[in-house]
Amino acid sequence: ITFSASNGEIVGLLGHNGAGKSTLINMLVGLVKPTSGTANLFSMNTEEDIERIRNETGLVPQSNDILYDELTCLEHMQLVAGIKGLQKADANKRAGSILKDVGLAEVTAQRAGSLSGGQKRKLCLAMATINSPSLLILDEHSTGVDIVARRKIWQFLQRSRRNRVTLIASHFLDEVEALC
User: Fold this and answer.
1) The pLDDT of residue 64 is above 80
2) How far is CA 167 from CA 96, 100, 110, in A?
3) Collapsing DSSP states into helix, strand and coil, what is residue 4?
4) Mean pLDDT, to the nearest integer, of 39-57?
5) How far is CA 48 from CA 2, 39, 43, 133, in A?
6) Average pLDDT in the 1-10 region?
7) Rounded to whole angstroms, how far apart are CA atoms 39 and 140?
8) Taking the CB of residue 178, how many other CB atoms lie within 10 A of it?
9) Buried b (16+ CB within 10 A) or exposed e, 14-37
10) What is the spatial order of strands in the sheet that 57-60 belongs to?
11) ∠ CA(143), CA(102), CA(95), 5° rounding?
12) What pTM did the predictor assign?
C-alpha cells in the first residue's frame, strides 16, 4: 500500500474485522515489523527512525488498555506530556484545554477506572494530542462510543486537523465519509 497525505487531511482505512487496518497501523508505529517492503512516515523509515516517528505521532490504540484505573484524567495527560518531553507548566495548560475540547472538563479529576467507555475513548484521544503531533493515528477510536459522543469527537478532529495528518481506521462508513 502506498499513499500520501498533506497537513489538514484525514485519511480513512475502512474495512471489516481482519482486513489488516490495525496491522498496518502497528507497522507504522513500529509495533510489528513488515514481512517485506518498507514503511516510511515523513521520509523516515520505521525501522531506522522509530523514536523520531513516535515523538511526532499520537496514537489512539484499538483498546482502552493503555489507561490506568487509579490515575485521573489530568494525571494521564501529565504522564503522556512528560513522556513526550513537554514542560510541566505547558503540559498542564494544554491538558486542561484539550480535556475541555474533547468534552471531559467536568471529569478532569475523576479516576479513569470510573469513566464510561465513551469517556475513556475521549481520554485516549486527548492523550494522543497532548504534544500536537504531526501525525495522529486513530485505530477504531469511536468503537463503543454513543452517537452524540462520536459526533463530538468528529467535531474535535475537524477543528484540530490543520497542522497534522490524521489516519483513522474504522468500521463505520458514515464516520469515514464525514471525516475524510
Assistant:
1) no
2) 25, 23, 29
3) coil
4) 85
5) 19, 10, 11, 19
6) 88
7) 21
8) 16
9) beeeeeebbebbbbbbbeeeeeee
10) 10-14, 165-170, 135-139, 57-60
11) 125
12) 0.90
Residue 96 to residue 113: CA distance in whole angstroms: 20
pLDDT band at 51 (very low <50, low <70, confident <90, very high): confident
Cell of 170: 474504522
- The C-alpha atoms of residue 31 and residue 54 are separated, in whole angstroms, by 11
In 31-171, alpha helices (H): 50-55, 73-83, 88-101, 117-129, 147-159
pLDDT beyond 70 at 119: yes
Judging by beta carbons within 10 Å of its beta carbon (0-12, 13-18, 19+), is residue 43 exposed, middle or buried? exposed
Condensed to tens digits (0 to 9), the pLDDT of residues 136-154 reads 999 988 877 888 888 889 9
Please measure the distance between the N-terminal and C-terminal CA atoms of the chain and give it in whole angstroms. 18
Q: In the structure grid, which three cell numbers stand for residue 81, read together? A: 506530556
C-alpha span between 138 and 37 (Å, rounded):
23
Q: Is the pLDDT of residue 65 over 80?
A: no
